[in-house]
Each structure stands twice: as structure tokens, then as C-alpha cells.
């Protein structure tokens, strides 16, 4: 049950960060180009990205 709660919370944190432009995306599906160092709930955003590797832009340096 806690696993589901953490996943849902991570998704909410990621979507909120995208809405406030603390996470930069480009294209569809939105590959992530940057994550702000002052992103609120950053650890949940990073967890969400790790759970969804298709969001990572492999051409980004």
C-alpha cells in the first residue's frame, strides 16, 4: 500500500514541477531536458523519472 502511495505522490510532484516549469520538457513523450536545482519535492520528481526512463532525453549533455 505504501508503494502505491509513493508512486502516486511522485507522479503528482512531477506534474506540479512541469506545470511550474521547474522541469523542462521537449517533445512527446516529453523527454526531460532539465530539472531545476531548487525544484520543490525534487527527490520525488527524480524518483518519478527513475520509474519512467522513457522521459530521459538521451541526446542531452
Question: How does this structure look, described?
Answer:
The chain is 46% helix and 11% strand. It has helices at 2-19, 42-51, and strands at 23-25, 32-35. Helix 1 (2-19) packs across helix 2. The longest helix has 18 residues, at 2-19.
What is the compact description of this entry?
By secondary structure, the chain is α+β, with helices and mostly antiparallel strands. It is built from 2 helices and 2 strands. Strands 1-2 form a two-stranded antiparallel sheet.
User: Which segments are poorly predicted (pLDDT under 50) over 5 or more consecutive residues?
Assistant: none
Q: Give the biggest sheet.
A: 2 strands, antiparallel
Mean pLDDT: 87
How are the strands ordered across the major sheet? 1-2
Radius of gyration: 11 Å
